[in-house]
Amino acid sequence: MSETVISFNPGDLIPFLPELVLVGGLLILLIVDLIIHRNKGNTIAAAGGILLVVLTIIALTGNEKIGAYLFNAVVQDGVTLFFRVFFAISALIAIGIMVSSFKKEGEPFILVLSSVLGMFLLAGSNDLVTLFVAIEMVSIPSYVLAGYKRKDPRSGEAALKYVIFGAFSSGLLLYGFSLLYGLTGNTGLPEMAAELTKLSSGSPAQIVGLILVLAGIGYKIAMVPMHFWCPDVYEGSPTPITAFFSVLPKAAGFAALFRLMPLFATLKPAYGLSGVGLITMVSALTMTFGNLGAIWQDSVKRLLAYSSIAHAGYILMGFAVIVSMPEGELYNLAVTAVLFYLVVYMFMNLGAFLVVDWVERHLGGDSIGYFKGLGKGNPLPALALAVFLFSLTGLPPLAGFIGKFYLFAAVVKAKMWALAMIGIANAVVSLFYYVRIIRDMYLHDPSPEFDNSEAPLKLGKLTAVLTLVTVVPTVILGIWWGPLAEWIKLRIF
Amino acid sequence: MELTLFIITALVALGSAIMVITRKSPIISVLFLVLTFFCLAVFYVMLGAQFIAAMQIIVYAGAIMVLFLFVLMLLNLRGDQNWEVSGPLRKWLGWIAAGGVLLVVITAIQSVTGFNTELDPAVGTVSSIGDALFNRFLLPFEIVSVMLLGAIIGVVAMVKRKPSTEDEEEGGEA
Amino acid sequence: MDMVIFIASLVKMSIAVSVVMGLATLLTWVERKQSAVMQDRLGANRADIFGIRIIGLFQPIADAIKMITKEDFVPPFANKWLHTLAPVISFAPVLMVFAVIPFGPPIEVAGHTITMQIADINIGLLYVFAFGGLAIYGAVIAGWSSNNKYTLIAAVRASAQMISYEVCLGLSLIGAIMIYGTLDMTTMIQQQSGYWFGWIPRWGLLMQPLGALLFLPAAIAENKRVPFDLPECESEILGYFTEYSGLRSGMFMFAEFIEIVFVSALFSVIFLGGWQVPYLTWEGFSFPWGGTIYLNIWLVKALEFGSLFFKIAVMIYFCILVRWTLPRFRYDQLMKLGWKYLLPLAIVNLLITGIVLVVLG
To answer: Which end of chain A has the smaller Cβ count within 10 Å, N or C?
Structure first.
């Protein structure tokens, strides 16, 4: 019998506490779901919500000075803590949105929580293997959640497209990883970055590897040209699940991109291509395609899907700056901008989908015709949606404006004029399709063929609370963004 | 001798891979895919990774492909149904794009120098893989078990019959 | 390559294949005679050559001649290639798994120590799992390529059953792997060579009783023998080789018999101590009460070869006994047994083995 020594130090697990609590809570929720028979959905959702609140508290009090631990597979730095808090809060709101639609089953909430576990792990991954396992862990429950409305063929189509596209992109990602591993001989991300910088410029294997990795991760953030699944999947999935998709896996993809940034930064200019150039081009394309695609949409869910593609493009602008300057004050500004925009995006998008889900549940559909005249009979949801849509465009004094301002500031400071111009042009274009909905809500009468009623629709307590929870930060962060920006700067740097 | 074996296996692998995508009957495609996996297992053995070769056959060719066959047999597709919906332009573009990608990847791999051509026989053994799995990659290893649990729950949640009143008649699961 | 090792490999291969095929042929006769004895009748004793019947030992030859001379028939509209390929896919893996089973103790010849395994690889038992898994394809392709709805259903049944019991098979063996600390079968046998309290041999059966108990049903189910032969029962519901006749169906039957030999060999190697004879060392018998019998080294080795065959024969006898005693399981009983009883028990076995190993060091 050969002696292998397992050198695992249990003290190493203390920084891992949020994930451990999440796993334990997940298992307990599973067993609870098996035991109780009535009110399954509400109980599991409530328990899940409590779990997430506990996790937020644990994550907020984490120590960001701990570097890599657990055999260098995971790292805990400021970015990890930020993303943990981000994922916990957004999952909390997403579960709140899901409660009204999944009253009788506990499994969707458990699947959301297991996806969130993958996201926690992704935020802290320091190793290619951990990164890949975490990405798969985020994706696999989402595939199931996309197809959850079993009777609706569009839901099945959404799930199938998501799965096939996701599997294909995982293949691309793995191929890129294998090329990069072959070049560097190591799977730890910092070691790989160090090895890659030693390579002479223009190593084709490095370029191909990084492009493939970008393609694989780009699928998750719905970046052009890997965005084709996004409108169909968002439209076909149940609307609360779409709310979940538009924020959480996307932010998870950005977290993965964060972790992989050092690798992209090692790409020196060669064959007319560099890391910065690559991401700039992709960002410009994503913004443009997202905005242009949204103009012709009649279904609000699809419109919001294209708008989320466009927002991914805006965030990628920030990443272009991050790649160009591995450290320094510009880097700090860009990272702050990206993370701030993610928070703002979370509130805006979750809120928008919350209202769309409410309209869909009460009126039956999500095309723009259903929103006509909403402002007359139902002031709170209509006003909330107006706030969210204005914020998504980027109009002052709402949070979206501040987020875009930070991003454009970083881009301009890095002297990437073309990118800034494209970004501003896109923001102007996006005004058109967002304002069209608001105009329909307030300036048109309810159309008879969509069975709108002038009488106020029922607004449940939870929905009202969630609406306030998402509207208030959107407004406040537009006026008083200082504390959030300072908190981010404090945690990360 | 090893070169001969490599060339033969590579030709078989390429041939069966091309057959996978060009056959009309899905079950024949699956069987050729199993053959491709066998060739991959042979490559792994030639590289000294015996454990991975065994895992490739046990997991991929022995379990996943059987599942594929299972589902395909239940679907009972006739091989002569016409699935082609794309015109010749798309197909030509597809082949050209694939050829382009192949060229790029070959250029990338050929540019790398300094390959380590010595095989350390201790690397592919079960004990060295166990060592790596329980020391360096302990965290991914344990997390994968939670991921599998999530996947199982998801699948069962999707296909179970809902006993609730919102679905009236269950006319067979999709 | 070294000539001695090369020639030794060739010799090992030919001996293994011929012995295994010969055993399987004999097994057909053993089965008929033993079932006859158990059912208080005479069995097949009519086959004769020039009037000499040796209690029916010519029956396998008669069966073989019958099968070879039957019409070779492919059903119309069936996939001819796959129809021909299925028996081959069913037959090849069960022969190939014999490559890792040691038939006896290592022999020193011309300065080399030759292990009695054809392939002395590091991943011995995993090789068994790999090729055991491939046997599923034979059943599946046979059922599908026959262009027959019922054989298709039978093929699906067969594959479901084989996959379920493959899981239990693997899990039940992991306890044994944990105790021996190796996947290589020769080392496993050598690990079983000590004694507890000085006189109880440390065979796998005594160290992993639950594992052995779980291995047997799983292996018999994997083999699709009664009581698990639902996929292939011919007269009640169609099996997956209904559309096969002559030599093709003969290959399926033969593959099944070879697999019985293989399952018995595997059980003997892992749980019954392989070629170990209790109290037999290289010099001869040394009993715990102090007596010794000195024997020639070649006699010792012959005894050890013989002991493995004896154990295989005992296990084959056991399999046939089980076949003619128990009625066939219904499909839901079969699945329930595999997933709800054997699988949790196998996991419990793992747990207990792990705890015992950690506690006892």
So the answer is: N
- CB contact, 8 Å: B122 with chain A? no
Paired tokens of C174:
């992991």
DSSP A457: P
Query: What is the C-alpha separation between A191 and B146, in angstroms, rounded?
Result: 28
Residues of B numbered 125-154 whose beta carbons fall under 8 angstroms of chain A's beta carbons: which are they? 127, 130-131, 134-140, 143-144, 146-147, 149-151, 153-154
Identify any residues that bridge with C112 across adjacent strands, giving them in sequence order: C109
- Residue B162 pLDDT grade (very low, low, confident, very high; cuts 50, 70, 90): low
% pLDDT > 70, chain C = 99
Q: Which residues of A touch C180 (CB under 8 A)?
A: 1
Beta carbons of A16 and A74 less than 8 angstroms apart: yes
Q: Could you tell me if A164 and B171 are in contact, meaning their C-beta atoms sit under 8 angstroms apart? A: no
* Mean pLDDT within A186-194: 86
What is the domain-level CATH number for residue B26?
1.20.120.1200
pLDDT of A4 higher than 70: no
Closest CA to C116 of C130, C100, C93: C100
Question: Is residue C245 over pLDDT 90?
Answer: no
Domain membership of residue B90 (yes or no) is no
User: Domain boundary residue among B16, B48, B76?
Assistant: B76
Residue finishing a domain among B43, B76, B109: B76
Most A CBs within 10 Å, among B52, B125, B143, to test the A interface: B143
0.80 exceeded by pTM: yes
How far apart are the C-alpha atoms of A356 and C264, rounded to whole Å? 65
On average, the pLDDT of chain A sits at 85
B63 part of contact set with chain A, CB < 8 Å: no
Domain span at B145: 125-160
Burial A370-397 (b: 16+ CB within 10 A, else e): bbbbbbbebeebbbbbbbbbbbbbbbee
Residues of chain C contacting B54 with CB distance shorter than 8 Å: 123, 126-127, 129-130
Query: Which of A371, A393, A391, A390 has the alpha carbon at shortest distance from A382?
Result: A371
Q: Report the number of distinct structural domains present in chain B.
A: 2
Kindly state whether C1 is in contact with chain B, defined as any CB-CB distance less than 8 angstroms.
Answer: no
Question: Where is A68: in which H helix or E strand?
Answer: strand A68-69
**A208–B154 CB contact, under 8 Å:** no
Chain C within 8 Å of A2 (Cβ-Cβ)? yes
- pLDDT at position C278 is 82
pLDDT at B170: 33
pLDDT of residue C275: 85
Q: Is residue B58 part of a domain?
A: yes
Taking contacts as CB-CB distances below 8 angstroms, the residues of chain C near B31 are 82, 137, 141
pLDDT given at position C1: 56
> At A116, is the pLDDT very low, low, confident or very high (cuts 50, 70, 90)?
very high
In a domain, B145, yes or no: yes
Max avg pLDDT among A371-380, B36-45, C41-50: B36-45
Residue C124: the pLDDT is 86
